Amino acid sequence: MTSLLHPTRAVALGFLLAIVFGTLLLMLPLAHAGNQSAPWLVAFFTAVSAVCVTGLVVVDTGTYWSTFGQSIIMILCQVGGFGMMTAATLLGLMVNRSLRLRTRLVTQVETHSLGLGDVTNVAKVVLGVTLVSELIIAAFLTLRMYFAYDMPWREAAWSGLFHAISAFNNAGFSIHADSLMRYASDAFILLPIMMAIIVGGIGFPVLQDLRVKAKDPRHWSLHTKLTLTGTGLLLIIGFVAVLFFEWGNPKTFATMSMSDKLLSAAFASVSSRTAGFNSIDIGAMTPESWALHYFLMFIGGGSAGTAGGVKVGTAVILALLVIAELKGHSDSEAFGRRVGPSAQRQAITVFVLGSALVVMGTLVILRSTDFPTDQVIFEVISAFGTVGLSTGITADLPESAQLVLTALMYFGRVGTITLAASLILGERRMPYRFPEEHPIVG
Amino acid sequence: MTSLLHPTRAVALGFLLAIVFGTLLLMLPLAHAGNQSAPWLVAFFTAVSAVCVTGLVVVDTGTYWSTFGQSIIMILCQVGGFGMMTAATLLGLMVNRSLRLRTRLVTQVETHSLGLGDVTNVAKVVLGVTLVSELIIAAFLTLRMYFAYDMPWREAAWSGLFHAISAFNNAGFSIHADSLMRYASDAFILLPIMMAIIVGGIGFPVLQDLRVKAKDPRHWSLHTKLTLTGTGLLLIIGFVAVLFFEWGNPKTFATMSMSDKLLSAAFASVSSRTAGFNSIDIGAMTPESWALHYFLMFIGGGSAGTAGGVKVGTAVILALLVIAELKGHSDSEAFGRRVGPSAQRQAITVFVLGSALVVMGTLVILRSTDFPTDQVIFEVISAFGTVGLSTGITADLPESAQLVLTALMYFGRVGTITLAASLILGERRMPYRFPEEHPIVG
Ligand SMILES: [K+]
Ligand SMILES: [K+]
């Protein structure tokens, strides 16, 4: 890198600055509902959770913070979501250029850097998509809240805007203490929110393909095809599994009408991979559903969007590799394209390091609490995948454990995208190769 | 395959036959301490556990079965361990020939099959190593039990032989209800057993290198070097982590002397990866130690030995891949050799399918019991890795869950080695290649 600041480091630093700034703002007495200064850990935890669009909270957003405080949180979510989408897209452009250069066998000059034109261009489009989506959803929610819930206009508009921004950015913050449980059977609230979650979480590269080549699906990139297929599959798996696991649970689905069951399962499936709203009580779900959540939360949403986790594309690449092996194919293929070996190696690396982070986080938090392991694992994966769902223990964790969660949110958010990019930008051919040997497997 | 029976299918069938035969024998009233016929599920579970050298039990081996029944169990362990070591070594030979043929670009005639000479040769050496190791360890244990525990000769010899065979085959069966907890501070019992576990579990290919090229470590195979390094690292990690996690636990280490702590931690580290004896109460350990056990039990021991799990070599290949990626190297290297890409793909496949099996098993058992998730995960990984440790719930699980455990033991034992072999034997070059594309990761 010839630039002063490596782009992946710039992203990491940018998020850090936003967190520091957010913490300071949230410590202002003005941000507190009781006009006191919030303790630094509460402000810090909330700022990290907002900037990393996670939604884990140690205090109730709606009653602890003033409207000013809630606005800060909303803006931090917006900045975090927008920043991540833009930064990840720009890193993706750089990666693509670097790959193109390499395949063209051009001399390896360091031309990874982007012009100002690219940056403003991407930022503009991202901003446009974001604002349009958020305003439409906010309008929907506001109207519904005004007409069906007898909210005054002001309150309905504030709630609609807050939840629209929170949903599009997959932030999962709600000004209701029960997240969205009061709307559990209201499709007019939940469906727009699900739309916002999916659009925001599918990732910018996919949105671009859908926008620019809407009528030409054959020319969508392999990434778009893989992400859409993977997302569809995960939505179906999550829907069916939640329905199956909760069907007879007296604390959740058993007493619901058929249509409410379907709506709740659909919402849980959409929201669990990274958005982090809940329309039913997570703490009351079966342990099977929790285990399902581990899986969905760890995978997360699409690359270069507002979603967290190791990303759908990463998981699909791994799945394709395993399928190819089982078929006895030496190439991993999909949609008439071959997945390059370096993409496979990066996918495995992201997966393994993500798992290692989760294991470490779990072990460290288990040391300092008496909460059962399954709840701790839930909390840790929720933080790593910047999901924000909780079985209800976040506020009761000791301070050290809360700090571990902030670290997981930060590395889960910033780490996965910068890691993959820096792996690709840093890769180089070996000057010599050792002789190959085939060690025994299994 | 031109042969009537594909070799990997022959292995799977052989284990199935041994299980059926063992179940029938254990149902004889003669096998039961009270001279009654054991229920079929008890006999079946015990036979699967013995043939798959796991050691999970639903009844107490020492009091439920007669000496005849215990002998059946011992013989099943011996047959299972010997069969697995021989079969896996032979599959390994076939795989090596197939790889050599391919690199020599000889026409792809189906010459995977082995001559009778190979089979008897390998079987002879495996039998020799097994008998010599077992007799030495049995002698040690018998002497110690006779002199230090005032056992009559007959009883001491029986106990020594049983535990030596159980240890070398990593079977984990004990005729004591408390496994080896009564010997928790007796290094003269635990150290020989640890030796037997390591020698039996390191795998035949490594033993051969050590035996034949003892003075020429530079010419050991990459597999041997990777397995020895990985085993050493895992032993150290397990030792330090158990010590750290249990140090202040009043139910385990807190009341022990310093030397007992060290001995117990060492024994837990050696035994947890697959042998399945325990010198301290697993159920009384901290949740952190359980989580550590998930990790160690899943990895298991060396390939083509009596150990289970996805194997140390598999884990090391994955680790090397991640390390190479982080360094920006396109090749994954160790000891001046390059790990072939097909070995990497196989390692990932074994890892992913093993994880999938564990997740599935956990979900299914969670459906049918109220035991906490952490204990269920422990049981499932213990069965998959044919470890045999338990937090104490095996006997109390419903019958359906016990059947799931038998399936996990069988697939954990037979699946990992046949899967890898069949992947390699089945791999073929593609007649054409699709254009490569690099989807986004992370
Ligand atoms: K979230
Ligand atoms: K075992």
From TrEMBL, chains A, B:
UniProt keywords (A-Z) are: Cell membrane, Ion transport, Membrane, Transmembrane, Transmembrane helix, Transport
Q: Report the PANTHER family cross-referenced here.
A: KTR SYSTEM POTASSIUM UPTAKE PROTEIN B, TRK SYSTEM POTASSIUM UPTAKE PROTEIN TRKG-RELATED
List GO terms (cellular component aspect).
Answer: plasma membrane
Tell me the protein's name.
Answer: ATPase
- Note the InterPro entries from the entry: Cat_transpt
Q: Name one Pfam family in it.
A: TrkH
Q: How does it sit in the bilayer?
A: Multi-pass membrane protein
Q: Name one GO biological process term.
A: metal ion transport
Q: Where is this protein found?
A: Cell membrane
Record-annotated membrane-spanning stretches: 43-65, 72-95, 122-143, 187-207, 228-248, 294-326, 347-366, 403-425
What GO molecular function terms would the record report?
A: monoatomic cation transmembrane transporter activity
Source species of the chain: Pollutimonas subterranea
Q: Record keywords: Transport included? A: yes
Q: Which domain of life is it from?
A: Bacteria
- Specify where it is mainly localized: membrane
